[in-house]
Amino acid sequence: MMHFLLLFSRQGKLRLQKWFTPIPEREKKKIVRDMTTMVLGRKPRSCNFLHWKDLKIVYKKYASLYFCCGLDAEENELLALEVLHRYVELLDKYFGNVCELDIIFNFEKAYFILDEFLLGGEVQETSKQVVSRSIEASDMLQEVSERPRSR
Amino acid sequence: MSDVVEKTLSALPSLLSLDSQAGAGKLSPSSKLGNLIKGITELTSKHEEERLIKKELESIKEQVASPNTTMRQMKEIMVRAIYCEMLGYQASFSYIHAIKLAQQGSVLEKRVGYLAVSLFLNETDEFLLLLVNTVLKDLQSTNLIEVCMALTVVSQMFPKDMIPAILPVVEEKLTHPKEIIRRKAVLALYKFYLIAPNQVQHIHSKFRKALCDKDPGVMTASLHIYLQLIKENPESYKDLTGSMVTILRQVVGGKLPLDFNYHSVPAPWLQIQLLRILAYLGKEDQGTSEMMYDVLEESLRRAEMNHNITYAILFECVKTIYTVHPKSQLLEKAAECIGNFVLSPKINLKYLGLKALTYVVQQDANLALPHQMTIIECLDHSDVIIKRETLELLFRITNAQNVTVIVEKMLEFLRLTYNVWFIQTMNSVFSLGGDVMQPDIPNNFLRLLAEGVDNVEDRQLRLFAVDSYVSLLQGETAKLPQRFLQVISWVLGEYSYLREEESDPGSVMRLLARLLDQRHTSTETRSWVLGAMTKLCSSPVYSGSLNTVLRQKAQELMILSQDTKLRARVLPAEDSSLSFLDGYVSEALAAGAAPYKSPHQRQEDLVQEKALSLEPYGLSLPVSLSSCSITDRRSPTLLSMSSGLSGNSTELSHQEGSTTLKLEGVKRVWGKDGYLAQQQSAGETPTPLVELPSPLLSPQSPPSQTQKPSSGLEPDQEKRQLASSLFVGLGSHNSVCLVRFPSTVWLFIKHCQSANQSNVVKALFKPLPLLLPVPLTVSTGDYGKMWLSFSHDLKQNLQLVTTEHQEPLTATLDALKGKLHLHVVDIIGSEGIVACRLLQGPGQGQPCLLHCRVHADSLAVWLRSPVPELPDSLLYHCQKALTET
Questions:
Q1: What ranges does the record give for the region Disordered, renumbered to this chain (chain B) (predicted)?
Q2: Residue B122 to residues A1, A23, B150: CA-CA distances in angstroms?
Q3: Are residues B118 and A78, on separate chains, in Cβ contact within 8 Å?
């Protein structure tokens, strides 16, 4: 099970945080701090895995953004890398050539996509089409209900 | 703000003007969130950011409280509140409004409301109770989107006690016509199961229905529940094995819709989930395991594409194969697969290969053998994570013979990576592990502290250790284990001088004195403490103790502190010539011991005696014996002989001896493939007994010959040597290591058992007599006379040789006769007498008699000779000869 997913920039600025298990506020701050320093401190050509307390940390850099998640020890690291990748693919499909700015300014959208992909720390839906469809369905609704008012 | 962000931000206006493309609603530049984000990125300091956010939160607070704020505005405000929280600023006043938004907003406002709730709260928050009614209402809504939203939030967090309120409605959704609703309902039930398993006990039958759902997505979701259930209680779900195997076969066979492919691999998530379930089902269950062998093999075979995701599947597959009841053919394939991981140039795969090896060596340590060189390389990898995993692997293959090398490697790793952390960790290791810890660990720790050049880093490490111990001693010491206290005392004694500038030296002394006065401090610890105090050069009166050792220490301390001349003699700053042993040496020489020969002399002697048919004593010497002597040397028991007064006295003598691994004595077992031939030539160099690498016992020797190999070797060979010491004990010799107990150690131990210290020293100063027995033909009568006249004897049980057509006694004596040229004088019933004499060596021409008697399953042998060491060495050769038969 995934315990958390963090997106942060090269400068260590948090762009998105999702906690799948109840964690006290103070602990969250510590995790964010530890993750950014640990991951940003990795030398090039190191592996994408780390250990933090009992958790396994899997991270990957996409352009200027780091995607970093904490997993139970028995989880499969390579699979977790693909979870991150699939999330990036979903963001990419939604935003069309996604960049850090899309996520900064539309972080709530990024959360919606995440909620359709992962639920309670487990992969909910692995089909890209299905996830996109359910996001679109909600977005359509948004547009439908917004348009009459704006006209 | 860095340049990069500024650059991207300069492109912002153009981006923002590209307002809403289809689907991706870009932000309008005038939006308040847009302004906030822009405002923050323009700031230059954390302080300014704080001020801006504070202002923002004030304004948000004001707006949410205003009755005029519409839900639509509230939605926008919530997004800003989420943003502030992400930056690390609490907006707890907005939580209640997030719930209100989820309650009262239209569908899209609700969506943000639910999102804010799921980001702000966690399942223990009491606020969440306010959400129950809203969720219940939305679950029953006719709008699918609302139902989805409610299920999504429920699957993330829900108050445990309120589950019964919504459970029936969620259950109902399991039969909903829309697959997305069914899927989310299953995940909601999974969440309920995790937080309150007994609440969902009655719906297990419905889980089964979900497992058989025609939609693969729903089925996949139900596997989360089953993985959990089966993990907790595999016995109750054995009947599912068939279904799981069938599903996996279909998935692997590409029977799912293409939609579920991921980079043209069919449903990898599903595959891995199934493999995990199969592992739990087949564990320690042959019958169940047999059902899955075929599909496991197929999974291995199908996953051939060179993509991360196939490696993920392979890894899981290997794990399953090694978890279920073993099938040799599958194990072979899995081992081959692990090999591919380990040898891969991709670092992630290498990591997983090491991990897989770590997992499988627990079943068969020999699996590590083919990868020795890779493992050695990984030990020096630039990535600490890889290093760490390698150590984990080594830890799993630790046995009695390589434990010291491995522990040393681990400590080295710790010291190199995290200085301060190392001390702290070792502190907790000592506090927790305490007195049950192997003595090797504190010894190695002290050695690590003591060795190395006296550079700034080392000094910092020591100083940090001293400081941390001082503060530890200032606190409660009653709970600290004795061994830890001993370590503390030693370190304080050696390195307190490092902190002299900042505090008065008396404070350490007072802390140590407090330890002495405490009742729970054991006498051994007290002598360590006193040792430390002696080094700190002060004189507490502690001579009233009833314990003689303590008393002696205290007396020594008192006298030494009063008599500076004596102290200078007894505790010289550095006595590299070890002149204190002169007495022993001359005594030993007087008793007929051979004079000391330097290593190269001995080497020459050995070359001259090449005609010997007997194998040299190159077998091995466990490293543990050699390494413990180094810190022990400084222990208080030897204090009066060797300890200097100054703290840095250790370095000199340690530098050469301990920085490199002692590989020379370790048995070179090479296993299936590798460097056996080469290794033997290097490894079989005779190691004379005097070479025991203890600084105490071979004082005058030049840098001991035994350490030369590791320094002068090609790096590659060094690695091989390291490999040989790390992997010792694995492979075919595993079971016989006790029988082939290394000769030198065996002798050493024999002496220790039999004798007082000076005997041991004598024995160690003497080269092992080179044994070349010739038959000594005597009559039974003469034998009896001689027997009575010889004073040095030894008794030992030997194993009997059993053959088909001979009595055990005759067979054993014949074997000895054949191998060692002994003369069998007579055999009477179950007893036999044997005689021989030595052709060369210190006991040249001297006889040795053996009296053998069959006793139960062994041969009780009684040896007598006029030369003290003859029985010992002859017995050793007898033992060896019989073992080889």
A1: 680-718
A2: 17, 8, 16
A3: no
Token pair listed for B151: 């299920």
The first and second tokens of residue B331, run together, are 């194990």
Query: How far is it between the farthest Cα atoms of chain A?
Result: 55
> How buried is residue B249: exposed, middle or buried, by Cβ count under 10 Å (0-12/13-18/19+)?
middle
Q: Which two tokens stand for residue B645?
A: 């007064």
- Beta carbons of B312 and A123 less than 8 Å apart: no
Q: Are B21 and B71 in contact (CB under 8 A)?
A: no
Instruction: Tell me whether residues B152 and A119 touch, CB distance under 8 A.
Output: yes
Query: Residue B858 forms beta bridges with which residues?
Result: B799, B855
CB contact under 8 A, B111 and A112: yes
User: What burial class does residue A57 get, using C-beta atoms within 10 Å of its C-beta: 0-12 exposed, 13-18 middle, 19+ buried?
Assistant: buried
Whole-angstrom Cα distance, residue A47 to residue B385? 8
For the segment B302-314, the average pLDDT, to the nearest whole number, is 87
Among A3, A61, A105, the residue to mutate for chain B (most B Cβ within 10 A):
A105
Residues 6+ apart with CB under 8 A from B394: B375, B379, B406, B409, B410, B726
- Check: CB of residue B254 under 8 Å from CB of residue B248: no
Buried b (16+ CB within 10 A) or exposed e, B357-384: bbbbbeeebbbbbbbbebbbebbebebb
Query: Residues 17 to 46 of A: which have CB under 8 A from any B CB?
Result: 17-20, 22-23, 25, 29, 32, 43, 45-46
- Both tokens of residue B664? 């020379």
Check if the beta carbon of residue B810 is closer than 8 Å to that of residue B802: no
Kindly report, residue by residue over B629-679, the tens digit of the pLDDT: 333 434 443 333 333 333 343 333 344 444 444 444 444 444 444 444 443
Average pLDDT over residues B578-601: 74
Q: Determine, for residues B348 and A9 on separate chains, whether the beta-carbon distance falls below 8 Å.
A: no
Query: Which residues in chain A are closer than 8 Å to B124, comparing Cβ atoms?
Result: 22
- Using a CB-CB cut-off of 8 Å, the residues of chain A touching B155 are 119-120
d(CA B768, CA B750): 13
Sign of CA dihedral B508, B514, B520, B524: positive
Q: Touching check for A140 and chain B: CB below 8 Å?
A: no
Mutate to test the interface with A, among B41, B119, B225, B310 (most CBs of A within 10 A): B119
CB-CB: which of A14, A48, A126 is closest to B267? A126
What pLDDT does B877 receive?
Answer: 79
Residue A73 has pLDDT above 70, yes or no: yes
Separation in Å, CA of A118 to nearest CA in chain B: 10
Separation of alpha carbons B848 and B867, rounded Å: 8
How far is residue B633's CA from residue B628's CA, in Å, rounded to a whole number?
8
**Alpha carbons B289 and B341: distance in angstroms, whole number:** 25
- Tokens read off for B630: 């180094």
Q: Which residues of B touch A105 (CB under 8 A)?
A: 16, 26-27, 33-34, 37
B283 vs B424, more confident? B283
Q: C-alpha distances in angstroms, B312 versus B349, B368, B760?
A: 9, 21, 59
Nearest CB to B124; choose among A22, A86, A108:
A22
Q: Which pTM was predicted?
A: 0.60
Q: How far from chain centre, in Å, is Cα B762?
A: 39
Shortest alpha-carbon distance between residue A77 and chain B (Å): 8
ipTM of the complex: 0.92
Cβ of B445: how many Cβ atoms within 10 Å?
Answer: 24
